[in-house]
Amino acid sequence: MLQHEENERLCRTGPGTPMGEALRRYWTPMCPAADVAEPDGPPRAVQRLGERFVVFRDSGGRVGVLDEACCHRGASLRFGRVEDGGIRCLYHGWKFDVEGCVLETPNVADPRVRERLRAPAYPVHVAGDVVFAYLGPPGTAPAPPRYSWMDGPAERRFVYEHVQEHSNWLQVLEGGLDSAHVGILHGDEMALATLGLYDPDGIGADRYPTTDLAPRLEIEATPYGFVYAALRDAIEPGKQYVRITPYVAPYLTFPAMRSGVMRLPRDDDSTVTISVSYDPDGTPDREAILRRQGMHLPEVYGPDRVLRIPEQDRPAMAARKSFTGLDGFNVQDGAMTMFMGEAILDRTKEHVVPTDAAVVRVRRLLLDLVDQVERGEAPLGTGPGVDTSAVAGASGLVGAGERWQGLLGT
Ligand code: FES
Ligand SMILES: [Fe+2]
Fold first, then answer.
1. Which of residues 235 and 198 earns the better pLDDT score?
2. Which structural domains are found in the chain, ordered by start?
């Protein structure tokens, strides 16, 4: 349970809010780089932390992130023309380069106006087929993010995003740090006889080597956040099944090996998730990934990338063919986090239990980040020498007396 004031401090991310200021001290994932793949291609409007931006790739291949509102009189640059080294506002034709320099002002004869003005522009880093921007105060940007899924050519990755409306970012992030729900909510996908209410046919995407629904959580602090292990009694006698999830503050979890999931406030009432499926030895199967998430149907996940929850299959539930009547991880997760009453969950009414330990931990950690920034310090993980390039999740069986950290090679 959280006090109302703490909950507000955690969930409000607009400019000038305590959490908003802390989050802006990290590089913000803006969009899949594929959205602005072509030089002089169409710009992409992006909303993050309650603010509106436009992302574009100029004629020379440089990616720019500017405020969406044109600095002349506020027209949206999402409609802009990207041409000849910049983006041109349609309203009066002002043109800006990726650094915000004003290149042309066709409705102003005096060239000194151009020299005086600058469009708000942000430092950009493109890596792992994701566009990152630094939205914090000038001169405070830490080193750009570096993760194992950024290695190698684009064919090794599938990057996609989806939007959950009516969900504050924290409840979506909490879902990624809540191992206990995997064996229950996602029981169909795990081919589990969840609570004896479902008869698995053995074709689940993953087969869980356990029927233990009450994992013990162990959490270790790291320089970038924490890593937590969920330990369950395995079906194999004397063994424990362990799922290990690193959390890199403030957005990223590694739910499966080297793949990454970033949950980002679009505004305080909606969340964008950018997922990276990474295969170091091959090319991820995009169709299979979207199917596994339940997002292969256009009525669930269309070009607007907004997740819609399909009608629940009650007959399948009654016939023990499905525990949830919902198909796919993201659809199941969305159904849980998009209907928690108000978009911001009222955490004064909850009752946390031991399997919620990582959820409680992330709240504490995020509140600490806010305190660190308020004290004028660099928040966790942004100082020099913090290396996240080898962070990865893991899962597997360990014997009695064996350390789960051994699965991480540490
Ligand atoms: S509002 Fe953009 S040029 Fe006038
Ligand atoms: Fe989930």
1. 235
2. 27-134 (2.102.10.10), 148-408 (3.90.380.10)
